[in-house]
Design goal:
This protein has a five-stranded mixed β-sheet with strand order 5-4-3-6-7, covered by helices on one side. The longest helix has 16 residues, at 87-102. The protein folds into two domains: 1-30, no CATH class; 37-135, 2-Layer Sandwich (Nucleotidyltransferase, domain 5). A hairpin with a 5-residue loop joins β4 and β5 (76-81). Helix content is 26%, strand content 22%. With 144 residues, the protein is of the alpha/beta class. It is built from four helices and seven strands; from the N terminus they run ββααβββαβαβ. Residues 35-144 form the Integrase catalytic domain.
């Protein structure tokens, strides 16, 4: 419905009209093609964080969840884990799966200084894969 024709948009500044429709409304209804997004800067920067322990276990016994977010596409991957020890294993799984799907490699992994990320095995793996590890302050999820 056109808000301008129904006099419901008095005093509101729009970016213009096209064929009697608000351009902002039309742009807001457009969808993006995911394949176009992947061609850009996909996997340049991946954010990750561990959340938990939760008071209730999942059906599989997990009390934590692990997230990986591609900064460019904002695609989110979530893994349910039982303990922080599983972070390294799930990162390797995520890396393999997403890199195979996109044909691109992770350049930077940004995490906090949690025990799941700061250990010798994880550090050596990132170095051998050529992935820069950026660390943020613990308990600041807005920076992850």
């Amino acid at each position: 419905m056109n808000l301008l024709k129904k006099d419901l948009a008095d005093g509101i500044s729009f970016s213009g009209e096209k064929d009697g429709h608000c351009i902002t409304c039309l742009e807001g209804k457009q969808s993006r093609n995911y394949s176009e997004e992947l061609e850009g800067k996909c996997l340049q920067l991946v954010h990750s964080d561990v959340c938990g322990p939760m008071s209730q276990e999942s059906r599989s016994g997990g009390r934590y969840f692990l997230t990986f977010i591609d900064d460019h596409t904002r695609k989110v991957f979530v893994y349910i884990i039982r303990s922080k020890v599983e972070v390294f294993e799930k990162f390797r799984e995520f890396k393999s799966q997403f890199e195979n799907q996109t044909g691109k490699q992770i350049k930077i992994l940004r995490t906090d200084k949690g025990s799941g990320y700061v250990n010798r095995d994880f550090k050596n793996f990132l170095r051998n894969q050529g992935i820069k590890h950026e660390l943020t302050i613990p308990y600041s999820p807005e920076k992850n």
